Amino acid sequence: MKHRLLLLLTLLCGVLSGAKAQNNEDEGINHALEVTTSEPQENIWDWQMHYKLDAPLTVGKNYVLKARIKGSANGTLALWPIDTASDNKNQWGGSNDVQYEASYDFTTSWKTFTWKFTAKFPLNELDFVFGQYGGSIFFDDVTLKEEGSDTELIVNGDFEGELTANWEKISWQGGVSFKVVSTSYKGDLLQAIKDAKAALEAATDLTREEAIAARKALEEAIAAAEAFTTENDEEYLAEAEKLKKATANLTQWIGVPDSADPNFQIYLCFGQSNMEGNATPEAQDYENVPERFQVMAAVNFSNPKREMGKWYTAVPPICRQGTGLTPADYFGRTMCENLPEEVRIGVVHVAIGGTSIKGFMEEYVADYVAGEADWFKNIMSNYDNNPFRRLVDMAKKAQQYGVIKGILMHQGETDGGMGNWTENVKKVYERLLNELNLSADNVPLLVGEMLSEANGGACWGQNSNIATLHNIIPNAHVISSEGCPGNGIDKFHFSAEGYRILGKRYAETMLEILKSQTGINSIFADKKQGTGKWFDLSGRNVGNEFKGLVIEGSTGKKLIRK
User: Span 54-66, mean pLDDT?
Assistant: First the structure.
């Protein structure tokens, strides 16, 4: 099967290469000039498209003009080169400065037409005339050379660069418009995308090297499909989007080393004080912490004794020594309660009280820290004044043990007045994905709301900004803070009970996301819904012989083993 996939990818790249098979007039994926007329006119000269040469042709020299042409219907087009600098030009017949070259009948298929002529005048303009035609005419690969010379006299005649001012319609023609458009074998492209997607879903034994090659080919296919998609090509966009989703788990697969356990789900947690943990843990928070809920220490602890970069049972505090209960505590516990025993949950946790989102942006963090108070600088020093880099470094280490499945964020109190906060969040999220070789299609961003107005929150207005994140991050999910009590001390932080409720809501959202994932992005597959496919927790198709964990749709949220 892997050989079939690689063959299909090779064919797909061929379709998307943009090469034009000029010998047999095949249409490659490229751009062309589309000239559109309103309706047929009485005379052939009533519709015209001109190309102004940068310098006049030399009188007495022989020239060859070639152009690939097709129409939306059959029609006739003629070439009339002209000397527009002449005082006695007569473009309507019997002229002493216009050359009436051959006319050709074009069809709806590409065909190359050739005009060979001798310049009888210092011709400085090529007039294409087609007044008795209504519809669109497409020009591509327009070339003009002096016979025996390799010098090209047409600028950007393949229309792959910016359209130059050399092209113009005559000023009195209101019924003519022109623009550069994309052209392709649409059917071939769509079928190639569909075949590659199907082969990817069926492949079971790609090596990592083959997966990397496959991903590269598919990414090129997506980029090519999107590049030539025009405004009305919704089918192109839809198929390209399907292909993008099909590559998501392939991307994640490549990032999973052989040492990683696909049943070990890793979640990155970052933000400011509410993610850091402001409430003092109570007795119940130290009890019954499942051993399969673990935290990778992002800093060194002395009490409890923990070493940066190593895993520990997630007994609070999980952020840093001296911090409190966080939403991540009950996120992890709730995940463990609702997933099979074979599934472990790990969190990588980096949060700094009072930090702006700029604290996680490497281009701003140095100047930002320099202008803050000493207490803030002391916290930042735990992360070498670069919490984003510490989060990435720990996440990469975590990837040696498991598979990153999501990112949890609680941040924004400091940035209530920042107009570009949502754009900065998007940057941080996308940078994490890029650094860790993850895909937005299967690694969601879960963002918790600020303490609500009803519970006395001072920053509840930021929740309106949080609500818009989905507009720019399609896989962003808002975690409601309604009903989560504050600490009664300030107007910014939740109580221990508030963190428990909020953490459970993060988990409930993530569990629904896991349940909803289907196809190549599956973590669990529902055979009763007719897919007939099983996937392990890294999303790898394991065939009909069940080797992983599944969810049975008829049982709702219940996860069962087969």
Answer: 97
SS3 of 512, please?
A: helix
Query: What does the buried/exposed string (b/e) look like for 206-237 if buried means 16 or more CB atoms within 10 Å of the residue's CB?
Result: beeebbebbbebbeebbebbeebbeeebeebe
CA distance 517 to 64: 59
* pTM to 2 decimal places: 0.58
402's CB contacts (< 8 A; 6+ apart) are: 260, 261, 262, 263, 264, 265, 266, 344, 346
Residues 510/266, Cβ–Cβ less than 8 Å = no
pLDDT at 557 over 50: no
Q: What residues pair up with 183 in beta bridges, in sequence order?
A: 30
Radius of gyration, alpha carbons of the chain: 32
Task: State the virtual CA torsion across 256, 258, 259, 261 in degrees, nearest 10.
Answer: 60
Residue 181 confidence (pLDDT) = 79
Q: Beta strands 476-479 and 445-448: pairing type?
A: parallel
Measured from the Cβ of residue 177, the count of other Cβ atoms closer than 10 Å reads 13
CA distances from 331 to 44, 498, 502, 504 (A): 74, 12, 8, 5
Q: In what order do the strands lie in the sheet with 103-106?
A: 103-106, 75-82, 125-129, 48-52, 167-169
Name the β-bridge partners of 128. 49, 79
Mean pLDDT score, 112-129: 95
Tokens 């209101």 sit on residue: 174
Q: Are 42 and 105 in contact (CB under 8 A)?
A: no
The upper half-sphere exposure of residue 191, i.e. CA atoms within 13 Å in the direction of its Cβ, equals 8
- Whether residue 304 has a cis bond before it, omega within 30° of 0: yes
Residue 544's pLDDT band, with cuts at 50, 70 and 90, is: very low
The predicted model gives 515-524 an average pLDDT of: 48
The CA distances from residue 428 to 96, 356, 392, 407, in Å, are 68, 12, 11, 11
Q: What is the torsional sign of CA 502, 504, 509, 510?
A: positive
Distance CA 429, CA 476 (A): 10
Sign of CA dihedral 46, 67, 160, 195: positive
- The CB-side HSE value for 324 (13 A sphere, CA atoms) comes to 20
Q: How deeply is 532 buried, as exposed, middle or buried, from its count of CB atoms within 10 A (0-12, 13-18, 19+)?
A: exposed
Helix or strand or coil: residue 284?
helix
Residues 95-109 pLDDT 10s: 568 999 999 999 988
For residue 240, what pLDDT is reported? 66
